[in-house]
Design goal:
The structure holds two protein chains of two kinds. Chain A is mostly helical. Chain A is built from 13 helices and no strands. The chains are: A mainly alpha, B mainly alpha.
């Protein structure tokens, strides 16, 4: 037996050494470093790092309107994606009904999620382009010239333009998740509901909604994390401009670090985001359970 | 399958109309770019964006391939994918085997580490990871992204766990009685039985690596190390970044993932849904 237990220890050591080392070096240590650097004035290069207590955090909350502007923009992504959720569920219900070519539609609807995000950003930069851009061309062809805009340079609509790209890219993914949830509902529930004379609205509230509760929670969580971390669409399409009008929290944080070399400040923002994610997710779970949408 | 009664032909018509409209919204921006990739700069400036190109003129693609170094980018991306996927699959299966088949003291802590990895906001981590990569001497080398991509994440571990739990423990034990070592049990039995899960996870990893922008952009600024995605970023700001050439470049960069998607869509659906819902 001794050899077996030794064999076990050797195997565990050999199999787990590299994965654990990678986690320690590239996950845990960076997390600790992020906290530490957030209390310094480090510029990313200097050998010297002066500890300045909560100065970065205080400065962030009192002296940096662009951070708040950026965070507000994240809020816009969050709200619009939230509004889309019922629509996404409706589309999933449509796809789940017995229609021809549902597989075909499913593949198409999911496709944007697979396409390269940078490519998507350029495609829409072209689409919105004020000179020979597709969108203005289509509006002109439809006789809607009055709606023609500078979609990416007008600071009152630039965020809406970018949010549309985000919806175009991620909604299909949500639809597919809802569809998976719907298909996990046992068929006999609908059959017994039919016998009991339930109508489709009752079906929806008493069978579908509880059946997809888990998926809905996942999508809401992904929405929080996703909206707080929006980066590549505004980074490629507008660089956060005009000014900081379409900046987002992640974009602004990374700019602070790698463009303005304020690693201390950027780390404080990073930690703030981590805390925000944890708090918002907690609040959402609370709300969700209060509403008591179905019991498991 | 939910059976909605679709006896009513008007209802049915409305349903297809909605789905077709969604498809149009998805396809219009893509088609505009595809058409533009066959047009000259003059045509793009004067024609309606959805007008079919007069001919399939591959001149833009030729210029892009000659000037844009997209083949080099593709090569780098494929290298990154191959190495990351191989290491990631090995580490993932090994970790899953060790964690699911054995009890040991540090198990909870290791799982906690994986959890920490999952809640860390992706790109923000690079602020402090940047220094580590630099100090390790990996900056501006193709190994910088690899050490990041290769690490197993919690979702992968979860999917492997589902599979391993489906393999009866008695199989391990009888193999052990026949004189196999734990290592042999893993290589001869567990690893092969996990291959379906590995295939799904590998395809998803490949798509992720192919589409990732920020890690290669941050850690590999050297012009010879550009991936397909970062090549597109540099190309757009070069003197060839006008819409005729850029459209062709966009289509070229989209193609590899679309091909992967068309061939493996079944695996991709399965893996992504399982990963999101269970993760």
């Amino acid at each position: 037996m001794k050899t077996i237990s030794m064999q076990k220890n050797i195997l565990l050591f050999g199999f787990l050494l590299i994965p654990v080392l990678l986690l320690l070096m590239f996950v845990l240590y960076p997390l600790i470093e992020l906290v530490r650097i957030s209390f310094t004035d480090w510029n990313g290069m200097a050998a010297q790092q002066v500890y300045i207590g909560f100065d970065n955090y205080i400065k962030m909350f009192t002296d940096s309107s662009d951070v708040w502007l950026s965070l507000r923009n994240n809020g816009i992504y969050f709200i619009f994606h939230l509004i889309m959720i019922p629509l996404e569920l409706a589309i999933a219900v449509l796809l789940d009904s017995k229609i021809r070519a549902s597989k075909f539609f499913k593949s198409i609807i999911f496709m944007p999620y697979i396409i390269n995000g940078v490519a998507i950003s350029y495609i829409f930069a072209f689409f919105y382009s004020p000179i020979n851009g597709g969108l203005n061309g289509i509006l002109e062809a439809l006789g809607l010239e009055s709606l023609i805009q500078n979609w990416l340079t007008n600071d009152s609509i630039v965020n809406i333009s970018l949010v549309f790209v985000s919806i175009w890219r991620f909604s299909g993914f949500h639809v597919i998740l809802f569809l998976a949830g719907l298909q996990s509902i046992p068929q006999d529930q609908f059959e017994s509901a039919k016998i009991d004379g339930a109508n489709s609205i009752q079906n929806f509230w008493y069978i579908i909604v509880p059946g997809i509760k888990k998926v809905l929670e996942v999508i809401l969580f992904l929405n929080i994390v996703g909206a707080l971390q929006v980066f590549d669409i505004p980074y490629i399409m507008t660089q956060g401009g005009p000014g900081h009008a379409s900046s987002t929290f992640t974009l602004y944080t990374l700019e602070t670090a790698f463009k303005f070399n304020s690693f201390g400040m950027a780390s404080a923002m990073g930690i703030t985001m981590l805390i925000l994610i944890i708090i918002l997710n907690g609040v959402q779970n609370r709300l969700f359970n209060l509403k008591g949408v179905g019991e498991e | 399958m939910t059976t909605n009664r679709l006896a009513n032909p008007i209802k049915k018509f409305a349903l297809y109309l909605i789905l077709l409209m969604i498809c149009m919204i998805i396809f219009i921006p893509l088609l505009i770019t595809l058409f533009a990739s066959f047009k000259t700069s003059m045509q793009i400036g004067s024609e309606f964006a959805l007008k079919l190109p007069e001919s399939f003129n591959f001149n833009n693609y030729k210029v892009v391939l000659e000037k844009g170094k997209f083949l080099q980018g593709l090569g780098n991306s494929l290298f990154l994918i191959a190495v990351s996927v191989i290491i990631n699959s090995l580490l993932g299966t090994m970790t899953a085997y060790a964690i699911n088949r054995f009890d040991f003291r540090l198990k909870k802590i290791i799982l906690g580490l994986f959890l920490a990895g999952m809640i860390m906001p992706g790109m923000i981590t690079e602020i402090s990871r940047f220094t580590i990569i630099k100090n390790l001497g990996l900056y501006n080398s193709i190994w910088a992204p690899i050490v990041i991509y290769a690490a197993t994440n919690l979702v992968q571990l979860y999917i492997y766990t589902q599979f391993i739990n489906g393999i009866p423990k008695e199989l391990d034990e009888s193999a052990m009685l026949d004189g196999s070592s734990y290592f042999k049990v893993f290589t001869k039995m567990i690893f092969p039985l996990l291959l379906p899960a590995t295939a799904t996870l590998a395809i998803i990893k490949a798509v992720d690596v192919m589409n990732d922008m920020y890690i290669p952009y941050l850690y590999m600024p050297s012009s010879t190390l550009r991936t397909l995605t970062t090549t597109l970023m540099y190309f757009s700001s070069s003197k060839f970044g006008s819409w005729d050439y850029l459209s062709a470049a966009i289509i070229l960069v989209m193609l590899p993932t679309l091909v992967i998607y068309l061939i493996f869509s079944k695996y991709i659906f399965k893996g992504i849904v399982a990963g999101a819902v269970k993760g």
